[in-house]
Design a protein that fits this description.
This protein has 205 residues and is an alpha+beta fold. The chain is 44% helix and 19% strand. The protein is built from 10 helices and 5 strands, in the order βββαββααααααααα. A 5-stranded mixed β-barrel has the order 1-2-3-5-4. A hairpin with a 4-residue loop joins strand 4 and strand 5. The longest helix is centred in the last third of the chain and has 13 residues. It is elongated. The relative contact order is 0.09.
């Protein structure tokens, strides 16, 4: 198994890159989320890879972070989703946004990926929700401008309910998560109080 490839970025084409290592050019399929963060041609890059062996093809799929590759392999465990479908989902949304969509049950966000219908998106949520820790997902910094000293992940249940309420009001998973992230949540706050403060934050996002 090829776990990662570290070499020079030799080529970038639609949905694929070529990394040259030890005189060999490795063609690696990547999602759009990776394409946007790649260094320039000729620069060094380390790609964490997933090796897929099929009867008619041998392919490498790559990601800049180990945890993103883990999200890819987790998607492959969902019935009816192969490498192409998993790559489409991770091309339509970042791995962090996907994790948030799964723990909040936002299958509509997942269904926006090309070739992914509503039933498949619902299966993703159903089969992966128990594999993700809500506190960990909510504790991740979703907004680069947020105060890193805040620790809303201490109250994942209240945070989760507030995010789900915002989604029900028509906000996207990303908008809801970022708005709630900005709230300084305390142990005595109710979900309604968190929701009101979050709605105020949405006016500034």
């Amino acid at each position: 198994m090829i776990s990662f490839i570290h070499g020079e970025l030799a080529e970038i084409t639609e949905g694929m890159i070529v990394v040259e290592a030890a005189g060999v050019g490795y063609g690696i399929r990547v999602p759009l989320s990776v394409m946007n963060d790649l260094p320039g041609i000729g620069q060094e890059v380390k790609i964490h890879t997933y090796f897929a062996l099929r009867q008619d093809a041998v392919e490498l799929y790559g990601f800049l972070r180990v945890e993103d590759r883990s999200m890819f392999t987790m998607l492959l465990s969902v019935s009816g989703i192969g490498p192409k479908g998993a790559l489409a989902i991770l091309g339509a949304m970042t791995p962090d946004d996907l994790r948030m969509a799964i723990v909040t049950g936002d299958s509509k966000a997942i269904a926006r990926a090309p070739g992914i219908g509503s039933k498949t998106a619902q299966r993703v949520v159903l089969e992966l929700k128990d594999k993700l820790d809500a506190a960990t997902v909510f504790g991740q910094v979703l907004d680069a401008g947020s105060d890193a000293s805040q620790e809303p992940a201490m109250y994942p249940s209240a945070q989760k309910e507030a995010i789900e309420a915002l989604i029900a009001l028509g906000y996207s998973t990303q908008e809801a998560a970022r708005a709630v992230k900005k709230v300084e949540i305390t142990s005595d706050m109710t979900v309604d109080e968190i929701l009101k403060k979050s709605l105020k934050n949405l006016a500034f996002l």
